[in-house]
Amino acid sequence: MIFSAKNTKLTLNGLDIIATQCALDIATTIDPRYDAGQRHSQSYFASNGVGSSMSFSHYLTGDLDKIKEFISDQGEKIGSDQRSNEGRIISGSFGGLTFTSGYLQTYSIQFNPNSPVIANSTVVFFDDLKGEFSQTDARVSEQEILNCKNITIENLSSTGVGSINDFINASYNFSVDINPVYKAGQTLPDRIYFGRKSVSMGIEVDNPTGYLPYNGVTSKFKLNLSKHNSSTATENFSCFGVLQSRSVRTSVDDKVSHMLQILTNNPKVTSNVFGIEPRPRPVFVGAGGDDVGVPLNVL
Questions:
Q1: pLDDT of residue 271
Q2: What is the pLDDT of residue 203?
Q3: CA distance 92 to 84
Q4: 0.85 exceeded by the pTM?
Q5: Quick one: how far is CA 103 from the chain centroid?
Q6: Among 108, 115, 100, 2, which residue's Cα sits nearest to residue 52?
Q7: What is the largest CA-CA distance in the chain?
Q8: With contact defined as beta carbons under 8 Å apart, do 26 and 49 qualify?
Q9: 71, burial (CB in 10 Å: exposed 0-12, middle 13-18, buried 19+)
Q10: 145 pLDDT exceeds 80?
C-alpha cells in the first residue's frame, strides 16, 4: 500500500508539527575487517553506535515556537553527576515510528518578502526506532501562518554598523556540535557531550557601505513577526554578536545588494551592566552615643 503525506503524523515532545516535508534517516557506522595479507574483505564490524537524524520543515503560526526553545535550554543544565548537560531531551514520532533520545542540531529560517515563514530543523538521535508505521486521518486544526509582510527589524547595534534604512531579506541559523559518549560494551550512549553553539543572522539591506574593522563590529539585530492586522509581535528572532562580514554584489539587470553577516557563539542573552549607583554606608552608634564607625565586613 502506498501512503501519502496526509497519512503521516509528526510529533515532538507531544507537540503536533505542521510540517511541509520530513525525512527520517537511519545509519550505522560499519567498517570492513581485513586479515593480514588480504586486499578484499566480506567481514564487517560496527565502529560506532546507531546515528540517525530527522529533518523537517514547519510553518510558524504565531504561538512562540516550542522547537526554538531548545536553542537556549539544550546543553545548559548540569546533571546530578555535575558533568552531564543534556538539558531537555526530545522524543518524537514519525508516522508511528518513535525515538526517545533526540537533540536539536540545526535550526534555520529564510525570511523572504511576502512569503510564509518556514523553519527548517534537524534532530539527531542515537537509539533504535520503535513501533510500526501507521497511517492517520486526523485533520489539523486551522491556524494562522506568519508571513514576512508583517515583519519589522530592530537595529540595536553600535554606530559602526551604520544606519539600516530598509532590509530586503534575512536569514537565521543555529547549529551545535553533538557527540555521544559510549561505555565499553554498550550500543547506546552513556551521555551526550555538547560542543560549540553558534547563531548567525544574515540581513540584506539596500544602502551599501564597506566599513568593517579587523575585529568586527558589535551588532544587535532583532526580527519581530506579528499576525495579520496586528502590531503586537508574537514571534521574534535575535542575534547579539559581532558583524563579521559585509558583501556588496550585483549582476546585469539586477539591483545592488548589501549583505551583513552577524555571528555569536553565545545564543543566551546575557545581562549587561550599564552603571553603578552609589549608596551611603551605614554608621553604627554605640551605647554611649558615640559613632562606632563602619564595620569592616559591611560594603
A1: 43
A2: 87
A3: 22
A4: no
A5: 11
A6: 100
A7: 99
A8: no
A9: buried
A10: yes
Rounded CA separation 174/229 (Å): 30
Residues 180 and 189 sit within 8 Å (Cβ to Cβ):
yes
- Going from the C-alpha of 57 to that of each of 21, 35, 97, 150, the distances in angstroms are 6, 46, 18, 20
Q: What does the pLDDT look like over 14-42, one tens digit per residue?
A: 888 888 888 888 877 788 888 887 788 87
Classify residue 89 by its DSSP letter.
Answer: P
293 sits in the region (left: phi over 0; alpha: psi -120 to 50; else beta) called: left
Give the CB-side neighbour count of residue 44, counting CA atoms within 13 A. 7
Other Cβ atoms within 10 Å of 215 Cβ, number: 8
Spatial distance between the Cα atoms of 54 and 288, rounded to a whole number of angstroms:
77
CB 256 within 8 A of CB 208: yes
pLDDT value of residue 173: 92
The fraction of the chain above a pLDDT of 70, given in percent, is 77
Residue 97's identity, in one-letter code, is L
What are the φ/ψ torsions at residue 6 (nearest 5 degrees)?
Answer: -70, -15
Strands 151-155 and 30-33: unpaired
State how far the Cα of 245 lies from the Cα of 263, in Å rounded to an integer: 9
Helix (H, G, I), strand (E, B) or coil at 86: coil
- Cell readout for 113 is 518578502
**Are residues 91 and 103 in contact, defined by beta-carbon separation less than 8 angstroms?**
no
Q: How many residues does the chain have?
A: 299
**In terms of Cα–Cα distance, which of 271, 299, 81, 285 is closest to 192?**
81
Which has more pLDDT, 1 or 23? 23
Query: What are 29's three cell numbers?
Result: 557506522
Least confident of 40-49, 97-106, 196-205: 40-49
**Looking up cell 531531551, which residue turns up?**
89
